[in-house]
Amino acid sequence: MIYLDIYPAAQQSQGEFYDDDGDSYDYQHGQFHRQAITAQSHHDGADVHLAANTGAYSSTVKHFVLRVHGHAAGTVTVNGQALKAVENRYALSQAAGGWHTDVDVIGPVTLIKIPAGQKVTVHLRGTQSVRKEMEVLDSQDASIFGPTPPTVPLKTSNPMYSDTHLFGPSPSLRPAIMTNHTGYTAGGFIAGFASIGTGASYYLRRHAAGRYRVVFRVANADLNTLKTMNVYVNGIMAGELSIPSTESWDTWQNIAMYLPLAAGNNTIMLRRDENNTGKINLDSVSVPYKPLM
């Protein structure tokens, strides 16, 4: 599954998705995947058209999620058939197809999951009100690493976590996505941080630089034991996150830190350093779209 960001305008825009094996010259003999994409905005919605694959290469990408920016659709049809709305991004990742409205740093967005390689016409019609003050980054959005510095990024083979990236050659020591406790936000939580050098990074964009009240949803069931993790913003240590004990691993708590984010791209990283205890469960990181006044 791959995400395609689409920004329809009154004048039709176009682009293409391309893929091949990345190693050989077989693309010179038709072993490629190429799909033309057009998009256009209308007074009552937007249209997106994907032509069929013109090559013979069997891409590993089986689904596209179209992120159609500037539209919070009321209805979505694919090739003339109504597409089913789903509740959230995680439900969309699990479905064979569907759509969901959301908000990102730019504004309203409609996410539409469709099969890759096929000729598809998508109509977005109507509108709905979507208000959201915080971006919730869950286990699907994390890059999990450690304790050894990565040589080659490793992508999880579990399709449930299609956006989660795993780094480092020591999976037995690395934090893991688990589901053995209740109350987590999406498809699981990040458990572990038992070894020095392990951590999780989240990537986000913001329009304005400033101080943001960032909320970490965490659990620590070690009775009367304060746990700690260091927090970094864009590679610079911003402070230590202190996590009091909770009643059980099924009990989550929200802990806020005020972090300086830049305009543009940002990275928020939690890492267990030598001065930390680690050994917590991390469910999500919530970041406002606007800084404090």
Give a written overview of the molecule.
- Helix content is 2%, strand content 47%.
- The model is unreliable at 149-165 (pLDDT under 50).
- Strands 13-14-12-17-22-19-20 form a seven-stranded mixed sheet, with no helix packed on it.
- The chain has one helix spanning 89-94, and strands spanning 2-6, 13-19, 33-42, 45-50, 63-69, 75-78, 81-82, 98-103, 108-115, 120-125, 134-137, 142-145, 154-155, 165-166, 176-178, 189-192, 199-206, 210-219, 227-233, 236-243, 253-261, 264-271, 280-288.
- It has two domains: 2-129, Immunoglobulin-like (Sandwich), CATH 2.60.40; 136-288, Galactose-binding domain-like (Jelly Rolls), CATH 2.60.120.
- It starts with a strand and ends in a 5-residue tail after the last strand.
- The chain is mostly beta strands.
What key phrases describe this protein's structure?
Jelly Rolls, globular, six-stranded antiparallel beta sheet, mainly beta, seven-stranded mixed beta sheet, 293 residues, 23 strands, Immunoglobulin-like
SSE topology sketch:
Layout: E1 2-6, E2 13-19, E3 33-42, E4 45-50, E5 63-69, E6 75-78, E7 81-82, H1 89-94, E8 98-103, E9 108-115, E10 120-125, E11 134-137, E12 142-145, E13 154-155, E14 165-166, E15 176-178, E16 189-192, E17 199-206, E18 210-219, E19 227-233, E20 236-243, E21 253-261, E22 264-271, E23 280-288
Parallel strand pairs: 1-5, 12-14
Antiparallel strand pairs: 2-3, 3-4, 4-10, 5-9, 6-7, 6-10, 8-9, 11-23, 12-17, 13-14, 15-16, 16-23, 17-22, 18-21, 18-23, 19-20, 19-22
